[in-house]
Amino acid sequence: MRKLTCHIPSKLTSLIIIGAILILSGCTIPNSKGDGFAIYLTEGDIPPARMPVLSHVDIVKPPVISTNDIITYNAQTHEIKLTASAFERIHKLDVPVRGKSFVVCVDRNPIYWGAFWTPISSISFDGVTIWQPLMLNEPYVITLNMGYPSPSFYGGEDPRSNPEIMTSLEQAGKLINKLSIAEIDKLPRSFKGYELYSWSEDSQWHFTLITGTNRNKALEEIISSEDIISETGWVRIHVAGVDAIKAVLSKLHQGEDVFWFAEWRSEQTPPANINFMLPPEPVIDSIKEHAGQCGLNLTVQRPY
Predict the structure, then answer these.
(1) How many Cα neighbours within 13 Å face the side chain of 56?
(2) Residues in Cβ contact with 165 at an 8 Å cutoff, skipping those fewer than 6 apart
(3) pLDDT exceeding 70 applies to what percent of the chain?
């Protein structure tokens, strides 16, 4: 990404000299008030298509998202939980189908730029995006995504974990490293339901609950011990033990579909100590009974 400098434009005569200094030096002058992490719109509403050729961009004060608007910033998923008023502000933005540019700053120093994007757009984008929420539904969460309509359209390095950003958010008490299953009330609803995989490993039953998709999952997605919990999308949770998977299923909304697969649906070969299979019938019945008590639609896909 081209290095940007930016300044806060001023129309007051008494600030002409300060404005001139800012124009020459960008946002590098320390801010005595310490804005910290903030997302600004661009002066003149510069289209995203023009941003890559610019070396200087003016930003609009106040920021469209300030540190005070943020409840938490998830370092794993780059989800930003906002106050209700801030979420409504983003919902009401005028975002054209070709995007609306923003600049992510720390103390008004530009770190990277991206674009608000409407999910109804059919135009792809290769930068960082914030998809404009179409409805005012909880949770009030926006995400700094890679590209549009999918990460495969993104080009370049990922700037979102910039150390200055993480430090600023941590100092403000807004940063969380990731969500754990114990910290949330309910997992997000999934349009295609959830998939459940089970396997025997070193004489213990392991389970992975993962967001349902049309594609076959990669081996690493299933056996990885790193959990991912997005409040608005992707979920992957790996646990060991029957009681543990029951606790996870309890976090799903009533009416959610869960498809429990007995076989590994991939050409990849699991390690020798991992055998994808269903547990014994008493264990299956116990988990099915618990799922029913939770109001879930659990379907066991048995081998042919």
Answers:
(1) 10
(2) 37, 104, 106, 111
(3) 88
d(CA 290, CA 245): 10
pLDDT in the model for residue 183: 83
Start-to-end CA span in the chain (Å): 52
Q: Give which of 302, 179, 194 is closest to 249, Cα–Cα.
A: 194
Alpha carbon distance 98, 205 (integer Å): 49
Q: Name all contacts of 272-281 with Cβ < 8 Å and 24+ positions apart.
A: 273/201, 273/202, 274/199, 274/200, 274/201, 274/223, 275/199, 275/200, 275/201, 276/197, 276/198, 276/199, 277/198, 277/199, 277/200, 278/198, 278/302, 279/198, 279/200, 279/205, 279/242
pTM greater than the 0.85 cutoff: no
User: What letter would DSSP give residue 42?
Assistant: B
Q: Are 172 and 67 in contact (CB under 8 A)?
A: yes
Residue 213 vs residue 146, higher pLDDT = 146
Cα distances from 208 to residues 194, 195, 237, 251, 298, in angstroms, run 10, 8, 5, 14, 14
Which stretches of the chain are DSSP H helices?
A: 16-25, 84-91, 163-171, 219-223, 242-249, 281-293
CB atoms within 10 A of CB 270: 15
Q: How confident is the model at residue 4 (pLDDT cuts 50, 70, 90)?
A: confident
* Contact call for residues 42 and 103 (beta carbons, < 8 A): yes
Structure tokens at 65: 């998202």
Residue closest to 210 by CA, chosen among 275, 260, 158: 260
